[in-house]
Amino acid sequence: MKARILVIDDDAVACEFLQEVLLRDGYDVSAFTSALDALKQDLSKYDLLMSDIRMPDMDGLQFLSEVQKTWPHLPVILMTAYGSLETTMEGIRLGAWDYISKPFSPEDCRIIVKKVLEVRELRERRQNGPPEAHEEARLIGSSATMVEFYKQIARVADSAASVLIEGESGTGKELTARSLHFMSSRRQKPFVVVHCGAIPDNLLESELFGYEDYRNVNCAAKQVPAFHAGW
Q1: How many angstroms separate the CA atoms of 75 and 130, rounded?
Q2: pLDDT tens for residues 55-72?
Q3: Whole-angstrom Cα distance, residue 96 to residue 93?
Q4: Cβ atoms of residues 33 and 57 within 8 Å
C-alpha cells in the first residue's frame, strides 16, 4: 500500500516540486498552501506530514503544535530556509521528527522521507504487531535522541551485515537486538538469546556451533548449534 504524504507550503511552486519528487517514488501525495486549510482535513489518513515553517496565518511550528494535540503519533518533517538553533529546539520540543533545510535536492528529500517512514513502520510494528514470546519489553520514547536511535535501527535492520551492540548493563542492548530482529525480513524466524557468560568455557563452542557424538553407533547424540537455530 502506498504511503500517503501531505505537503504544506505557502509557496505553490515548492508544493509542486515536492509532489513531483514524491510521486515519482510511488507515494500518494496531497498538498496545501495553508496550514489552516490542512488542519480542516482528517490528517489521520496520512502517514507523513511535511510542513514549511515560515507561512502566513499559521506557521509550521503552530501547525505542528496543533497536530500533536489530535494526532500525536503522526510524523512531521519541518522544512525551512531560515533555520536557527532556537527554531530547531522548539520544533524538537513540539515533536518534529526531522528537519530539512531549503534549498534541498530531490535525493535529500527522498532519503529523509524514506527514513522517517521506516521509523514509523518500526513503531507501528512494535505497537500493533502480534504478541511474541518473551517480547513483553519494548523500546519506548519519542524524544529527538530516541527518534535518531530508531532511525539507526531502521537503517541496519534488514542488512545482512553483523551488528555489534555495545553498552553498559541495563542500557537496553537486548531490547535493541529484538527491535532489529522484529524490523527485519527475518522476523518470522526465532530470536535466539545466548548468555555466553553463563556457559562454561568447555561448553561454549558446542553451544554456539553444535556437535555430533558418534561414539554410540546406534544413536548419535546431536547438539543443534545456536547459530543455526535462528536461521
Answers
A1: 23
A2: 988 999 999 999 999 998
A3: 8
A4: no
Domain ranges of the chain: 4-104, 122-183, 196-229
CATH 3.30.390.50 fits 4-104, yes or no: no
Distance, CA of 67 to CA of 51 (rounded, Å): 11
Contact between 41 and 65 (Cβ < 8 Å): no
Q: Which amino acid is at 83?
A: G
In tens, the pLDDT along 171-183 reads: 888 888 888 888 7
Cell numbers for 188, please give them.
518470522
pTM for the whole structure:
0.57
- Confidence (pLDDT) at 140: 74
